[in-house]
Specification:
Chain lengths: 264, 378
Amino acid sequence: MAWIKRHLITFAALAVLAYTLVPNVIVAVFSFNDPKGKFNYTFNEFSTDAWTNPCGAPGICDSLGLSLRIGITASIIATILGTMIAFALGRYRFRGRSATNLLIFMPMATPEVVMGSSLLTLFLMAGIPAGPVAILIAHIMFCVSFVVVAVKARVATLDPRLEEAAADLGANPTQTFLRVTLPLAAPGIAAGGLLAFSLSFDDYIITNFNASPSSITFPMYVWGAAQRGVPVQVYAIGTVMFLIALGVVVAGQVVGARRNRQVA
Amino acid sequence: MGDTTVDRTGKGDLSLVALTKSFATFTAVHPLDLTIEAGSFFALLGPSGCGKTTTLRMIAGLEDPTGGRITIGDEDITDTKAYQRNVNTVFQSYALFPHMTVVDNVMFGLKRRGDKDAKRKAREALELVQLEQVATKRPTQLSGGMQQRVALARALVNRPDVLLLDEPLGALDLKLRRQMQIELKRIQQEVGLTFIHVTHDQEEAMTMADRIAVMNAGRMEQLGDPATLYERPSSTFVANFLGQSNLLRASVLGSESGNGVVRVRSHDTELEVVRDHLPQGVGDVWLGVRPEKLRLGESGGPNRLSGLVRDVSFTGVATQYSVEMPWGQELTVVQQNDGTARARLGENVTVSWAAEHGFALDASQDAEAGAELVDDRG
């Protein structure tokens, strides 16, 4: 009894962890199911069909490819733009700085339905047809905000004396930026980039407003499939996604830990 | 060592000509003229906010002067950028690059100049500061004292024309600080570079520097070697900031008595002071004597004052007395514990000193200037 009491916090933590992991485990388990009928809701029979033939469901790999292309492009562009904005906001005093600071939060605060519909209106007015390009522009727009927030937090903790020290040691402004500032800001930039990718890859609402029938992203595909019964491949791809994300996080931790206890 | 050091640094003396820095609301450095000899260990000493760090940052190129010129030898560097100057700084916070190893930190400056021999030179610099064993560690894994030495090696390795040290020992504890003072002096003599050391610690400045400029409120109060500054301060600020001083109000009685000594009257007592220690053409003066120059009894010299012992504190090597004069002023007397007679609390004593141990300062100055700053320094 006393033992349980002493470890209550551990039990609570494990319970919360289980709570967050159960959906992922279910997805992983059901990716090995061979469902009876259209719906993959009851475990019928073990099968590796979905894993050996991930593109088996019509259209699934096209949508996955489109989502990956949009996600990678959008996160790269948003990371570059967001990093520049973060440095400008964090380092310089200029007219309109506080307004920019406030406006950068707008895409995060605005309901996605509102943003999706207004973007569609904008694109139609500007003569940009709904489709991959419109989706990409929309994704970059809302991803930038998140990158700015992540990078700005990092920039704020950078010691300006390190840049002075670099200049003092003969590094010109470009060298100072590449050798000192950028490496020190890198964790924030990487976090911003990963966040941008996952937001872009995951987005349904804004994407749906600005998509054309030929530009079905992965979330749209899953949503559409859910009406008729989700193919098991979706479960397999979902599991892979989860494992990749887990791998990135673990790798980040390992690199961080190793950096802290370098060769003695 | 003069000639060889000039050859090694290859450039020559650092000169500041009417160097000025003004901010919107105040002037941090009033026009400052100063020449620092190549190869010397120079200290800029003053309380916080006196303009010493601003002066240092202008020499480094990290702050743009409002006016004036900076030259090293024949070269005017006023308008060059920090990264173009052959001047390196040891920052107060060390400012080591946390994402690089110790040896990469030390190589940073050499690599920027494309030095092919960077690795070997960096190793040598680390050997000089006795840290070769931690070359592959990160700065955050080292103690404060070690980080300080890495910062020193990182600056030294570039063989700058001038090495600037911005309160480099400020964050270290007393024992380590004393150790590093000796270490710094040794390294400076070994490499023969010009060191400019900014500090608010008068003892540190006197221990290490060949010459000291005492700064106060953006102006240079006095320039000289440590002994001159201590024995012959030219202002009450210097008299109080560098060690302790007893300052007696006195008026000059004029006529020299033939042996280079002038008589002054202080509180109805006639006292003597060496003529050279008296400012020209001044009638009212502060007559200053250092506590350790005062003797209990009449052995110290012809200058004698009597008073009551108000406080006695034994410090081991010496005993410090507070002796109250009839007019209420308390004189501080420091007596070496060399076996001579000691005074007791409440005893009536005579204090005496020699004419050459006194110095006189213009009485128009505040006698307390610089004294209140002594307590809050680390």
